[in-house]
Amino acid sequence: MKNCLRKLVLFTTFLLLIVSCSKDENSSDVPSETIKIEDDLKINFADLTVVTIDGEAKVDARGNFSANTTNTVAKNLPLLFIKDNEIMFGYYSKTGLNNSISTTDLLLFYFTLHPEIALQGFQNSELLDKIKQNSNYDELTSLIKASLDANLSPFKNASFVSLLNKTGFTIGVAKRQAKLSKISKSQSFDFRYTYSRDGTIVWNNKFPLFATVGMEVVDVSTGVSVSGPKMFDNRGLVLSPGSGLEWLWDRYVGVKFEKSGTFKLPKEGKYEIRFTNGVDNFGTKVLEQEVDFNNRFNIGISVLSIAFPIGITEILEDNKCRDATVDLIKNMRLSTTTLVITDKSAMAEFIINLYNDLFFVATDCLESKPKKNFAQHINFIAKKLNAANELGTLYLLLKDYLFSDIKGKETRYFYDGVSFGELQLTNTTGLQYITPTGTEFSGQAKSEHPYTASVNETAFKYSINRDNILTTSITSDTSKEYAIGLPFEVNKTNSGDATLKGNKIIPTSIEGQLAATFVMGTQESKFEIKPAFKNSGLSSEFVNLKEMVDLTSFYNEKVVGSWKVENKDYPGTYSVAELYAGGTGKYISQNGVLFTNGGYAITWRITKKDNKYYLFEDGFNHPGFNQFRKIGTNLPNESLTYPLTFFKTYGDLGDGKGTVEALLYTKL
Fold first, then answer.
1. Four-CA torsion 326, 172, 100, 154, nearest 10 degrees
2. Which residue of 140, 152, 212, 621 has the fewest C-beta atoms within 10 A of its own C-beta?
3. Collapsing DSSP states into helix, strand and coil, what is residue 4?
4. Of 41-45, 59-63, 349-353, 450-454, which range is least confident?
């Protein structure tokens, strides 16, 4: 019996030695740290437990604790100090084992729990600067000191929670507005499609809305979407690079957006380009479902980001409940929220309920109990902050999706390889040529006659208005823009001998101008100008050309006006003459100086010779100009031609052959 007792004592002693050695080894793996709060705050450290993402440990009365902080430091996570199962304070671990912590360090931790701060994705150094610069900084630090001196959590102080809420939204919204301003420098809060004649449609993928907007191209004849649903990227307004929200989007949705979207019309037809935020079945069923899916995830991951304002990538990286979270987001009931946007308490209740459901499902399968414990402590405090603030990103997302009617539609045609919208054509040739049956030109054979028209196309631009606190609205502005590169064709419709100068297919210019030049023949000729593609909605233009046998009366009309007359015997010397209808006129100036006597009266006439026409005038220039003038010499520019620009007179003074330039007339 004694031997048995001796053996039992020896075995027990051996066990105690093993256990004792084991504790020592574990303790040596976890170095002891000391926390020292500056500002001489009277905190009873012995009441506290330190919680990290890897575990927890008691804190002794002098602020010493031994906890595994390796991952916490490496992943820039805070240490949490818990009293009565509630966070008293936290701070982001510093280098070394003796952590001297200021009130500002504690304030930084509290701000990182704020919902808008979480959504905007601040770096700690950036956030710390914003906190110190804020006008509420002194009051917030004072409230922290008062609570901790009383050995109470600042979150038990309603004044502190209210001021933290308010200041967090001020800082977060300021960053969001700065981001929006940066975006608006390259992309205004207007939206429009860009079209090419080959049927290609291009758009900027960043739609200026917090909710996701979808678009599609629908064949009007069948009602079928030929493009399938295409989502615009709202992440420029919602997501910040490096934020937990961006990580969640990539993990749960995984949609990658290009800078711009593009689609090419597949075949001939009439199409509608539609976009919508999915509130009223404006699009096809497939588009509406896709828009709804994306916006549910917008809302769901935003709430999830608020539920995990700190450490979301570490806590949920091994989450085996992802599918359950996705199912919850897909099936969450949103219809009831349409009744509560003006009721802040009801809106807050909706968000908290969704918040709680998502948090439970997202953490239910966590295998790491320390991670789950860490998340629950963070979540308990984060819920005390208001996520339903009307300035907050989540509120704006709900507003843009559930309470706003965002939609637009425009029609596009694609025929004979040409894409176009609603077209308008205006004949700009001149009123004197336009008749009820078309454009008519008269003139001598081989004279040129330009036809011009302005072609415009209706363009749409959509503007976002966020002024109303309850809804976001969109306005559609239409304008008439130059229709560039539209092909028109010119065809002769009778047997006349007038001709078209150049190619029969004429594209409109960069200023939307359609221009065709016709050369007069000796027979009456008719032409039709029409789009070189069908279903344009434009009527044909008709041009009629008739040779005028005697153009005397024609030129009697056309020479009326102001002329600059240069004397070629005296280079640089010129006069200005005004020719009036009926054959009278007046020289009014010389070398730019008006005559003091009011001018010199003249008479003028049109003379015809060998089917050419000449202008003669008397009363001012030396009569020798007419006395020695030779006509019918076939010298350059000696006769009148239309359109009138200039002509020359020639004389025989000096060579006796009539080849000397005398006067140069230029129409002003």
1. -80
2. 152
3. helix
4. 349-353
The Cα-based distances of 53 to 79, 282, 364, 660 in angstroms read: 8, 48, 16, 105
Half-sphere exposure of 272 (CA within 13 A, CB side): 16
Alpha carbons 294 and 249: distance in angstroms, whole number:
10
355 neighbors 362 (Cβ within 8 angstroms): no
How many alpha carbons lie under 13 Å from residue 14 in its C-beta half-sphere?
A: 6
Residue pair 144/131 in contact (Cβ under 8 Å)? The answer is no
What's the one-letter identity of residue 155? Answer: F
- The stretch 592-605 carries a mean pLDDT of 93
Q: Are 315 and 364 in contact (CB under 8 A)?
A: no
C-alpha separations of 440 from 304, 516, 541 in Å: 74, 14, 11
- What distance in Å separates the CA atoms of residue 385 and residue 535, rounded to the nearest whole number? 61
CA distance 481 to 87: 63
Structure tokens at 273: 């380009």
Q: List all residues 6 or more positions away from 307 whose beta carbon is below 8 Å from its beta carbon.
A: 355, 358, 359, 362, 379, 382
Q: Rounded CA gap, 272 and 65, in Å?
A: 68
Burial group, residue 122, by CB count within 10 angstroms (0-12, 13-18, 19+): buried
Residue 270 to residues 68, 415, 531, 532, 588: CA-CA distances in angstroms? 67, 9, 17, 17, 62
Please give the full DSSP string across 359-410, using - where no structure is assigned.
HHHHHHT-S-HHHHHHHHHHHHHHTTS-S--TTSHHHHHHHHHHS---EEEE
Give the residue ranges of DSSP H helices in 82-233. 103-112, 115-120, 124-133, 137-149, 158-186
pTM for this entry: 0.70
